[in-house]
Write a structure and sequence with these properties.
Layout lengths: L1 H21 L4 H14 L12 H29 L5 H4 L2 H18 L2 H21 L17 H18 L4 H9 L5 H25 L12 H18 L8 H21 L9
Helix pairs in contact: 1-2, 1-9, 1-10, 2-3, 3-6, 3-9, 3-10, 5-7, 5-9, 6-11, 7-9, 8-9
């Protein structure tokens, strides 16, 4: 039990840092970590192999969504106080993200664990390649004036972001940050806006997984112990990281964003021996 809690506490701290610096909300950190911990670490009365890999992936995504609700709301409040949020880029995009999130969360409960794992890995790989190979993400000229979001981007883009993000439990920041970045926003503002845009994804995902009739516990697929341990680490980290977030140079910020995605993908691939990507 101690190993279980300490592991999640540590990664909870990392989740708090990524929530503020990159707008991740925790999904890209917590999904592979919770999956790995559930399938490799025993708890009192629960052997290490008690959770089937298919259920473990659903539990990881559901717990990630629940933790993200708290992290995203806390981070949004802090970003708003610091003046980093622009209403024109948050609303009505958030409304369409919520619509897509409801559909994506429901679809995820119908998918097998293997399909979710492969989609998660593929999503990461495509995002990394797009950020590196397509212009407009790694560097934005300081003289560039931010461009508004068009109606099609807001409607179809927002719905698509919510659909994919909720299905994979990742909050949508890996789509919203590049989208806003290519509209000319600096990384500090693009990642700040990802926090409020993650809230509807997290809420929709949590509700669907909590109410899922095939859930594994009293709150559906949400693991209360894992969620509590993650939040115990993430909330103090959010408070501390918020004080230094605006001081990171834009070019370093964007490269660190991509580097973290590469690390997460590498960690997921390392789970192959435990069945994370096993067909």
């Amino acid at each position: 039990m101690l190993t279980f809690c300490l592991t999640l506490l540590f990664f909870g701290c990392l989740t708090g840092v990524t929530t503020v610096l990159f707008g991740f909300g925790g999904g890209f950190v917590t999904v592979p970590v919770v999956y790995g911990v559930l399938t490799a670490t025993a708890r009192p009365g629960i052997p290490a192999d008690a959770v089937h890999p298919a259920d473990a992936m659903h539990v990881a995504v559901a717990t990630s969504a629940a933790v993200m609700v708290v992290n995203a709301v806390v981070a949004t409040r802090g970003q708003w106080r610091q003046g980093r949020l622009r209403r024109a880029y948050v609303w009505p995009l958030a409304a369409y993200v919520a619509i897509g999130a409801a559909a994506g969360s429901f679809a995820a409960t119908l998918l097998g664990g293997t399909a979710l794992r492969l989609l998660f890995a593929a999503y990461l790989l495509v995002t990394i390649a797009d950020s590196v190979l397509r212009k407009g993400f790694l560097s934005v000229s300081p003289e560039t004036s931010p461009k508004p979001l068009g109606p099609a981007t807001t409607t179809f883009g927002g719905t698509g972001i919510g659909l994919v993000a909720a299905a994979l439990g990742v909050g949508g920041s890996v789509m919203t940050v590049p989208l806003l970045r290519r509209r000319g926003l600096p990384m500090a503002e693009a990642t700040a806006m990802a926090n409020p845009l993650s809230v509807p994804v997290a809420v929709a995902g949590t509700l669907v997984y909590v109410l899922a009739p095939t859930g594994t516990g009293p709150l559906g697929y949400v693991d209360l112990t894992a969620g509590a341990a993650l939040l115990l680490g993430s909330l103090p980290a959010i408070a501390l990281t918020r004080r230094v977030a605006g001081r990171v140079p834009d070019r370093i910020h964007s490269r660190a964003y991509v580097a973290l995605l590469v690390v997460v993908l590498a960690v997921m691939l390392s789970f192959e021996s435990t069945g994370f990507l096993d067909l």
